[in-house]
Amino acid sequence: VNSGTDLFEDVKSLVASEMEEARRRTILSRGYYTVYHGFLETPCGQQFSFDKEKRVGIHAQLLDYLKQTSHDQQLQARAVLKRMYARRILADYNLSSTITANELDAHLKDLDRLFSFFNTASNPTTSAGPERLP
Amino acid sequence: MMPIPVTRSDQVFNSLTNVDIEDVDTAVRSLFQLRPLARQGKLDFTGRVALAQAALIAGYRDEALAQIDAAYRVREIGLLPVIDRLVMLFRYVADRDRAVELSRVIAEVPGVLKNKVPMINCVLTALWSGDVNYLTFLTSIEESSEPYAMDVLTTLRDLGMLEHWNTHQQIIFNIVKNIQMHGEVLIVMDDSGRDILIHRIFIDGTRADPSDVEMKIEAALDSYFETLGSGYRDYDLRVMTLVSESPRHIQAEGAGA
What we know:
The complex is a heterodimer of chains A (134) and B (257). Chain A is mainly α.
């Protein structure tokens, strides 16, 4: 595995028609890390650096960093990343909350949304991109 | 096979205790059992609460809301477990005032909050509603060996949110009050060991788009906090997951609302 795109394909392959909740948790978690790495591979993400001196973790720092822009599309993408992070935290740390099929569907749609954004962000000369995420 | 309508609504009420939010089969079976009683005007307080809960899980917000309203009108304060569940339903549909009102009724019954279940429900209501005064009151009556309310209060204090939490939640309620089908605020430890607040909100997918609702909430809260100039971080306070819900089992229609 060399990139977020590789993880993207793997997450898609985890999706089956019938699945236990444990598998849903796996997909939410891996789906989040797919977009996390995807973000870091964009031109914007490549400028992000983790500050070990801060009291907060790398995911919080990335979300803080992505907020420092007036670019609407980036802010929308950040919002999607943030909610995918929320689902990942619930999936990994809060076993008492049932992960529903609708949450899984929403997560997979968000995954597709962000990869569309990454493609646009990585090829800014080919398209100005839509005003909002798909 | 078609479930047999019941004559005693408490049977269904009990079967919905601890029902999972995704257990649509149980919810639909309960709808089949209770709707005939509702049509005959024979549904008591307990039955209305059970029907509301089942309708909400099955994705019928309007039906659930009608039964919640009816249950509130005929409420029997002596039936504390039923009142407790009605409080939970008020939280789910984002009816803050009535959730807090009934939760306080429970909290003021001497000795009731020595029981873990109603205590946790009251603490969840206080946190979710943004009512810090209520939360503080709960800390004064809880057992020191099981400090649920104190833990929540400490988290809000550590996040610098005690004086803003009420407004924070009110801003969210103003946006979701007519569309929410399930809502909770969870305190969860993140990867770095810090407590953060996760808002888990399910909305009626036939009425609103989750992304639009989320952006509205983000914009409204950013606007409030930026005016204050306080150094808040949205990461700590409102990592959100908004999910669209709509009727999930069309067969439930067969029972007729």
